[in-house]
Amino acid sequence: MIQTPYLLFLGDAPDQLAAKVARGIADWRPENSVGQFRMEGCGADVGLPDMTLEEGLAAGAKTLVIGVANRGGVISDAWKEILVKALQLGYDIASGLHNLLRDEDELMAAARVNGRTLFDVRIPSVAYPIANGKKRTGKRCLAVGTDCSVGKMYTGLCMDAEMRKRGMKSTFRPTGQTGILITGGGVPLDAVVADFMAGSVEYLTPDNDADHWDHIEGQGSLFHVSYSGVTMALIHGGQPDAIVLAHEPTRDHMRGLPEYQQPTLEELRDMALPLARVANPACQVIGVSVNTQHMGEDEAKAYLANIESRMGLPATDPYRFGAEKLVDALEAL
Amino acid sequence: MIQTPYLLFLGDAPDQLAAKVARGIADWRPENSVGQFRMEGCGADVGLPDMTLEEGLAAGAKTLVIGVANRGGVISDAWKEILVKALQLGYDIASGLHNLLRDEDELMAAARVNGRTLFDVRIPSVAYPIANGKKRTGKRCLAVGTDCSVGKMYTGLCMDAEMRKRGMKSTFRPTGQTGILITGGGVPLDAVVADFMAGSVEYLTPDNDADHWDHIEGQGSLFHVSYSGVTMALIHGGQPDAIVLAHEPTRDHMRGLPEYQQPTLEELRDMALPLARVANPACQVIGVSVNTQHMGEDEAKAYLANIESRMGLPATDPYRFGAEKLVDALEAL
Question: Do you know which Gene3D superfamilies this protein is assigned to (chains A, B) (predicted)?
């Protein structure tokens, strides 16, 4: 588990997009970050107080989180100098970069000398068990998508936030790098060895209070041939009580697969539900989450209304219009 | 690729069962082995000529294959002495043991000094790509099971043997350790990292002649919550033209999951086919393979006849009664 609160390292991010991970952390867990650290010429700003490494420590920060993509996949000397200093001052460092902190000799040496930890969240740090399929206490909700990158993580985060606002017991359970850095823990599912995928999801969502909801971050799609095995492991390892169908309506084809068309929401429902009921016969599809970012407001609302009348399920863009309908549906279960 | 022919190392196997892997190689690819090497007191015999290491070499053997489980998961000193000598004489060594050859310092040193290779087939040796889902030339057949360990490998091997007997173009494509040692190559799918599972199956079954059939070794089951993600990756990475349903009718529950019942063959068909058609819209379920080893002959034949009349599909135990019906169905496609 990565220790919070964080100081967010924005480095020399050329623009806001490069600091997407830091933005996610600041948007979704503002209480987890004391401030941001920006190098000269940084073009990103996530709206937190600017701090030096020393100021961050004084404000209580335990971990420096690299919330920015590095240019060309290389950890530059300018970055390294700052990261080594952070380790010397007493920070741990956490990163979701493709190239690993642990592969940098200077960082490893500085961490060792100063007794600090480097967290490469792309790599599993736990020897996960093989799934045993046993029924667990507590409730679980999983977003399954018509495609990859349609808003499954945001759906889970929005529903979790709405539940906590209502005073309900709720936890967001990350299965990808950004989600892990947002909350400080989780399973980097796409890097888990095949035999242990479903077991890692069981590990992530253990027994809990009967009225507690886990919102499990979805991955891939049953209709995306590159990653459908990962989705399958989430459905069977997560044994969800509730499924939310997630969709992005403006795509021409499946992400990265020009020969493949997106399925309809009905096709997704009819594929996902029987599979989910293998692990949890009580599983229900409770609603639809649509990523409407490429639609005007009227168009988006008409689109959602059409789904509701067609499918008899509540439909919303939880990030744009709120997750109330979806949480109402969970409460009604 | 592991070089053939092999000398099969049976070691000090206490009984036939302990030498199951060697038995599989001798049964399915007798042309790949020049003989067997047995230590004093060995209780197994796969029916090949007994040879010393030197005799094996003289007969053309390139690789010593460890075809026996080791007691207590430890490579004993008695084994090590023989394996080191084999490396010195010029053998490569291949093993599907859980504990790895490469973790034994003496073996690594002997391999290095003598320029030989240690093959631990439980561990992937290739950096597999992410699946691209593109249609490949040639035909592919995949056995999908109601459960794990119901005879999917034997189904593929039987169909491949029958096709080759008929002079058809056919290759068995292993996805597990035993299959890899039988043929000398393949993908240890259960040890592949999640994101690359489907890509590894594409890699295993590349473009081929239009009238060539790959028989892809199945793994797990869509109904086995521990391993269903692996099965899913086979269905989408393999993009099969033909599916054989595989079943073992005498089980009380899913293997290792006492809370889970086996599905019916009809339930398996209805789950697998729509998923397979995502990757290959032309996919057909062409027959049923039943592992009848725990049934009397009359009982088995009645069981198969019942499936045929119920489902309108050819049904056989290909190991007991031959794979002709299944291959006929592929030819008729």
Answer: NAD(P)-binding Rossmann-like Domain, P-loop containing nucleotide triphosphate hydrolases
Closest chain B C-alpha to A190 CA, distance in angstroms: 5
Residue A128 domain flag: no
Q: Is B257 on the interface with A (CB under 8 A)?
A: yes
Assess whether B174 and B296 both reside in one domain: yes
**Which 3 state secondary structure label does DSSP give A315?**
strand
Closest to A132 measured CA to CA, from A262, A279, A273, A320: A279
pLDDT > 80? residue B71: no
- Say if residue B89 is in the same domain as residue B159: no
Q: State the pLDDT at residue B129.
A: 95
pLDDT for B98 equals 84
Range of the domain at A33: 6-120
- Quick check: ipTM above 0.90? yes
Does the pLDDT of residue B200 top 80, yes or no?
yes
Instruction: Determine contact, residues B36/B50, Cβ cutoff 8 Å.
Output: yes
Chain A interface mutation, best of B225, B228, B260, B280, highest count of A Cβ atoms under 10 Å: B225
Check whether residue B155 and residue B104 sit in a common domain: no
pLDDT, tens only, B91-101: 999 998 888 99
Classify A113 as helix, strand or coil.
Answer: helix
Q: Is B273 on the interface with A (CB under 8 A)?
A: no
In tens, the pLDDT along A204-223 reads: 999 999 999 999 999 999 99
Chain A contact present for B196, CB below 8 A: no
**pLDDT tens per residue across span B22-34:** 999 999 999 999 9
Q: What is the mean pLDDT of residues A240-264?
A: 97
Among the listed residues A22, A81, A17, the one whose alpha carbon sits nearest the alpha carbon of residue A48: A22
Kindly list the distances between the CA atom of residue A82 and the CA atoms of A19, A34, A79, A157, B117, in Å, as whole numbers in the listed order.
Answer: 17, 18, 5, 32, 44
Neighbour count for residue B76 (Cβ, 10 Å)? 14
Residue in B231, B260, B263 nearest the CB of A133: B260
